[in-house]
Design brief:
239 residues; Rossmann fold; two-stranded parallel ribbon; 9 strands
Length: 239
């Protein structure tokens, strides 16, 4: 799909600019001509990405803090311009069976995976509505569909996140904002998964850059043919 030619009004927020998919998303949107506002808690990581990615700017932010999110989005407007794309990639993952799950742990996953989407979506949607267009893309995973025995502290939050995104799509879509949910049904290729699955071949893993390509494509779709849910997996993945 052809990139828009006017780069001056192309601003993308990537929330959850981690070392794997998050960094790949930042690189992909920057390559597409966007000025990228990168949100994460790790200031050192953000500084390193700023040095690497032309046109990017890091903003240290706890996305579960609504006041902080609103302040950061205001800064992004002042520094870079109004964002036309938000990619919600922030995630908290805690694992354990039901009887082992602490209530505080489950609450933490909801704050990061669900509440932060509310904060960020409400912060960016007004300017998108005023412009008459925009895209909010949320990265999810298999837990949004089903809860395995050891995902009792994680799957409920991802399922809620998916349903929240669906409600957002039905509310905001008719007013010009494309909301989409990308399910990553895969083990993503990052250093810690390579250690955990050390016996697996390269094609067992999903490449962060390939995931980012799909998210970028979805964010650019013509409004006559929008995707709400896309599911990604390596060609050999059982499903």
């Amino acid at each position: 799909m052809t990139d828009r030619t006017n780069v001056t009004d192309k601003v993308c927020i990537v929330a959850g600019a981690g070392p794997g998919t998050g960094a790949a998303l930042c690189r992909r949107f920057a390559a597409g001509g966007y000025r990228v506002a990168m949100l994460a808690r790790d200031e050192a990581r953000l500084a390193a990405l700023e040095r690497e990615i032309s046109g990017s700017r890091g903003y240290a932010c706890d996305v579960t803090d609504g006041e902080r999110v609103r302040a950061v989005v205001e800064r992004i407007h002042a520094d870079l311009g109004a964002p036309s794309v938000l990619v919600h990639n922030a995630v908290a993952g805690h694992f354990g069976e039901f009887l082992d799950v602490q209530a505080a742990t489950l609450e933490n996953t909801f704050r990061t995976n669900v509440l932060s989407l509310v904060h960020l979506g409400q912060a960016v949607a007004p300017s998108m509505l005023a412009a008459g267009h925009g895209a909010i893309v949320v990265t999810g995973n298999t837990s949004a569909w089903r809860g395995s025995a050891t995902f009792a502290a994680f799957a409920p939050s991802k399922a809620a996140q998916r349903i929240l995104a669906q409600s957002m799509a039905r509310s905001l879509g008719p007013r010009g904002i494309h909301v989409a949910y990308v399910v990553i049904d895969a083990v993503i290729d990052v250093p810690w998964t390579r250690q955990m699955f050390g016996d697996k071949a390269d094609d067992f893993f999903a490449k962060p850059s390939a995931i980012a390509d799909t998210v970028y494509y979805v964010a650019q779709q013509d409004r006559s043919a929008w995707t709400f849910e896309a599911d990604l997996r390596p060609f050999g993945e059982k499903w």
